[in-house]
Amino acid sequence: MKCRKCGGKGVINLRQHRLILCKDHFLEWMPEQVQRAIEKYHMFTPQERVLVAVSGGKDSLSLWDILTRLGYRADGLYIGLGIDGGVDYSQESLRLAEQFAQAHALKLHTFKVTEAYGLTVPEIAQRTHHGQTKPCSVCGRIKRHIMNRTAREAGYDVLATGHNLDDEAAVLFGNTLNWAAGYLVRQGPVLEADIPGVVRKVKPLCRIYEREMTAYAILRGIEYIYDECPFAVGASSIYYKELLNRLETDRPGAKLNFYLTFLQAKKAGLFSASADQGRQNLHSCPNCGQPTSVDGECAFCRMMARVKSKPA
User: How many independent structural domains does the chain possess?
Assistant: First the structure.
C-alpha cells in the first residue's frame, strides 16, 4: 500500500476518496479538509474567537489541534459532569484536556457541575426524572446550557464541537426514521446565532469519518480517553452507527453521500420554515437570559428549581 502523493508507505486507505496516504501527507490532508468545510459552510473567519467544547476524547482534542494548526484563535471548554465508570471517567477526561492545553500553551475554561450545583449529572437526573438510571437527556440539556452561556459571557463569536461524520449520519438516520421535522430542519454544519442569546454553533468535522479522526489522533500523538461514557451503552445512536457501518463496508462513501445529499436537499427547500416552529418562538428566559420556547423560565432553570426543592 503506497501513498498516492509520494509513493511512500501508506498508513491509511481512504476508500471513499480512493486515496491512500502516508503519515505526513495524511496529517496535511486532514487540516485541509477541515479548512474546506469551514469555508464552504461559512463557519467562522480567522478574526473571530472560537470556543472548542473539549471532552478529552479524540474528536474534540483533534479538532482543537487542527484549528490551532490552521492559525485560528481557539480556546477550550471542558465541562466536568461527575460521571464515573470503570475508571473515574470525568477525572480522566479532565486530566487529558488539561494535559493537551498545557502541552500546547492553550487556554482551557473548566466548568464543574458538582461545584456549580452541588450534584453530579446522574444525581440531577435521579432527582428530576423519577430516579432514572440513564441521565443522557439531562446531560445534554446541561451541556448545551453551559456551552452557550460560557461562550456568550466570555465573548466568543462561535462555539465549535467535535461531531464527526459518523455522529452526524447516525443522528440524521434516527431523525429520518422518525421524520422528526423540527430536528431535521436544524441539523447541519452551522446553527446560526439568529436569535438573541444564542451563540453560533459549528461542526468543522462533519465530513470527516470517525476512523479518520482516530488515525489523526494516534499519528499526532494526542493522548485521549478511549472509554465511552458508561451511560452510552445501549444508546440508539450506537445501534444506528453499527447499521451505517455495515452499509459503508459494502458501499464506501455511503455515509458521506447520505449526509451531503441531505444538506443539498435541505438547501434546495426540502423543509419549509414552519417545520421549526420551536426555534421561531424562542425568547429570553427571565431568570438566566438563555433562549427558551416556553412561557416563563427555560427548561434548564425549571429543572434546577426542581432539584433544589427536593431534599438530599
Answer: 1
